[in-house]
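Bench notes, afternoon.
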Amino acid sequence: MIVLGSNSEVAQAFVEEVLQRDGNLEKLYLFTSEPELAHKFAQHLQVKYLQESEIVMLDLTSELNFSRFERVESSLLFCAVGYLGMGSEEGLYDTKNTTRVLDINFSRLIPLLTHFAEKMERRRGGTMIVLSSVAGDRGRQSNFIYGSAKAGLTAYLSGLRNYMHHRRVHIMTVKPGFMRTKMTEGLPLNPVLTVTPSRAAANIYTAYRNKRNVIYVLPVWRLIMFVIKNIPEFIFVKLKL
């Protein structure tokens, strides 16, 4: 199993979900920009599950050297890479913030996902599970740079799923909604609309086994985003969302 963004809480919860339900993995690659944290998780997996892991350095703020990943292959990839950055009020005119948000969530992530998609196509099988965001469903004034990157990611996954359908590679898009993680720490989140990483991981695992294409981790988000996406633009432009 390949895990991109392996220090995210939902990625770690999903790895444990797989180990508990399916047993040990032949190989587990933990991609991260913070190897010290990943090392702690790898030690946890070794003690609790006797699962060996390999940590692979990944920095999406720099040009990637894909030759380093040539030997990395698996039939299952889980991508929880994400960077929220500053909201529009603080960061809209901060070029460095905008570049970082776009690099991590889209422009440097897409070539990496394509790299592993090609490997799965050669194997004639596999599953890629990628976390996008409800923020990509419609641009809103509060965080539309992040939302635009996630919208691009969602569109890429839709096209890749269509391309891979007859090549036996399944692409699953996950839209978590609000999730209680380090990335949202301190934000005033509605508990009814917020999911814990462990519950999210359980829901994602069930959807993965049922070969779902696109899921909202909490079903209520499908209704919320249906309403938001269908608000006429002349009304939407006046709202503060």
